[in-house]
Amino acid sequence: MTAAPASGRDRPAILGRLAGAVLLVPGVVWLAAFFLVPLAIMVVISFGALDANGHVTLANPGFQNYQDALQPEYVRVVWNSLYYALVTTILSIAIGYPIAYWISRYGGRRKVLLLILVMLPFWTSYLIRTYAWMIILRDNGIVNSALQAVGLTNEPIEILNTDFAVILGMTYGFLPFAILPLYVSIDRLDEHLVQAGRDLYASGSQAFIHVTLPLTMPGIVAAALLTFIPALGDFVTPDLLGGAQTTTIAKIVQVIFTSGRDWPGGSALGFLLMIVTLGGTLAALRTLRREVLAG
Amino acid sequence: MTGRSSRWLTAFVIAIYAFLFAPIVVLIIFSFDVSKRTFIWLGFTTDWYGRLFANQDLQDALWVTIQVAAIAVVGSTILGSLLGLGLARLRFRGAGATETLLLLPMVTPEIIMGISLLVFFAQLFNLNGSIGQIAIAHVTFCISYVAITVRARAAGLNPSLEEAARDLGASAIGAFRHVTLPLLAPAVAAGAMLAFALSFDDLIVTSFNAGVGSTTLPIFIYSSIKFGVTPQINAISTIIVAVVSIALFVAWRLGAFRGDLRNVVTDPEAA
Questions:
Q1: What is the crossing angle of helices A249-258 and B110-125, to 10°?
Q2: By residue range, what is the domain housing residue B87?
Q3: ipTM field
Q4: What percent of chain B is modeled with pLDDT above 70?
């Protein structure tokens, strides 16, 4: 190990060039080998096909799988996926903004605790939370039992296996994604600017629309991306809360890889799903690098 | 309180907090309910928990989950801590690219990570799912969380502490071992706890990389749910929620969510 120079403020102590290699290389190599390389292989395979034995072959690479993926029957599936993700994103921001605003403005010393309370359900198993909604929404679940007990209905209302259930489940699952970036941007907002607007005779709502909202727009954009990306890739919620007739891209990809064998076709769909989220991912990355790695 | 909030806004906030916690509370309550099919309270029982211990498939799944989590925690804590320390301390060309590489797994939809690893193992190594394969996948998505937690702590350390040790005659290695390392330890432990919580209940990545004999607890639960809801699932879910909550609580006490909670901006599990 090379000893570092003993002077200089930013002296890296024992972290010389060799130490740098020891620190950085293992993790970078791991991520390259088990994250980047698999992604590259998935993309390569998406241009292949299945041979007579059902094995993946790259003998005649082409765009066949992508042409198949753009068939009319898939258009409805893509629309469905986008619809769920979009409505979830809009609802998450509409619900998350007031929460984030309230925590930032009125949370006082309890801000951190209030944020941790938002995060707690979000860190516990997504599967289990989705399952909990199943037992609440099913025909003999709590909601239907309560409705029948007060006599609002005699027959159970079908709530599970509807679009409503899927959007409810997704909004529940991804709401904390929206609240955190919204909180960060609202909390950073200088309250004096809003006050200045009020001093210049803006009404409360005018000050909100012309001052608060534009200044917290980066948070809204980050919240939208952080909700939209996972919502688009989610297959657990459509599967468990949407029932058999609900199809999304992610659900089709999941079925192809767990029960079907058409990996090239599935890889193409997966890659398309990734491209759709890639623009968002790259935009989110810039925000994330600022928010997450700033410290 | 720093000011007066409108009554409607406060009511709305309380309602949303209730909305966030209600499903989990319901799940826990009904894991103690005598009733088997309907969700009406018929009486208190711990019978469903007792039956868990009689279920061999479930115990096998639990054992697989623990093995995977152990490898994932050790592997990702070592690799992630080194990476986090390096990013905090070193100025080097490619630092930006390394940060991007670190953040990419956090913002890639988990289903993409799952299928790409499946294709990778099957096509290159002819492997079709095993405990080792799941563990490698888990290490991969846990590294970023450990690295970011350790990095935040390392960047916040006062460099004069190590310099003071050097001035008092400590060697470079000695100063690092006796000053910096103990100060970093809580962040390393917090990162390990996060990795455990992530690994213990991952479903999506795991579902593509599990094979015969490597069914984890979340996969067991997922197939049980699809097969038919039973109160046993409420009981095992309650246990998982408890285990993961304890891990997260410890991580929080160790400083995993310090600052403006920057490290929790993304969740791999749901992505």
A1: 20
A2: 55-264
A3: 0.83
A4: 90
Residues B156, B161, B163, B166: is their CA dihedral positive or negative?
negative
Q: What is the pTM of this model?
A: 0.82
**DSSP letter at A108?**
G
> Residue A108 and residue B261: Cβ atoms within 8 Å?
no
B78-99: burial string, b at 16+ Cβ within 10 Å, e else:
bbbbbbbbbbbbbeeeeeeebb
Residue A13 lies in a domain: no
What pLDDT score was predicted for residue A2? 42
Domain for residue B19, yes or no? no
* Section A283-292 average pLDDT: 62
User: Looking at CA atoms only, how far is residue A63 from chain B in angstroms?
Assistant: 19
Question: What whole-number distance in Å separates Cα of residue B15 and Cα of residue A95?
Answer: 11
Sign of CA dihedral B233, B193, B136, A28: positive
Q: How confident is the model at residue B121 (pLDDT cuts 50, 70, 90)?
A: very high
CA distance A7 to chain B (A): 9
Tokens encoding A268: 């193409």
Cβ contacts of B156 on chain A, cutoff 8 Å: 295
- CB atoms near residue A67 (< 10 Å): 10
pLDDT of res. A21: 79
Q: Which residues of chain A does B148 touch, with a Cβ-Cβ cutoff of 8 Å?
A: 292-293
Q: How many domains does chain A have?
A: 2
B168-206, pLDDT tens digit by residue?
A: 888 878 888 888 888 888 889 888 988 988 898 888 899
Report residue A87's pLDDT band, with 50, 70 and 90 as the boundaries.
very high
Total tally of structural domains belonging to chain B: 1
Mean pLDDT, chain B, whole residue set:
82
Q: Are residues A246 and A162 located together in one domain of the fold?
A: yes
Angle between helices B95-107 and A263-292 in degrees, nearest 10: 120
Judge if A29 and A127 occupy the same domain: no
Q: Which domain holds residue A156?
A: 81-292
CATH number for the domain that contains residue B166: 1.10.3720.10
* Closest residue to B257, CB basis, from A10, A101, A116: A116
Residues in B closer than 8 angstroms to A11, CB to CB, are 159, 163
Interface of B with A in 47-76 (CB under 8 A): none
Assess whether A54 and A88 both reside in one domain.
no
- Split at pLDDT 50, 70, 90, the class of A116 is confident
Q: Which amino acid is at B27?
A: L
Residue with tokens 């935009």: A283
Cα distance between residue A36 and residue A230, in whole Å: 20
Q: Cβ–Cβ of B116/A270 closer than 8 Å?
A: yes
Indicate the range of A99-103, A242-246, B114-118, B121-125 predicted with least confidence: A242-246
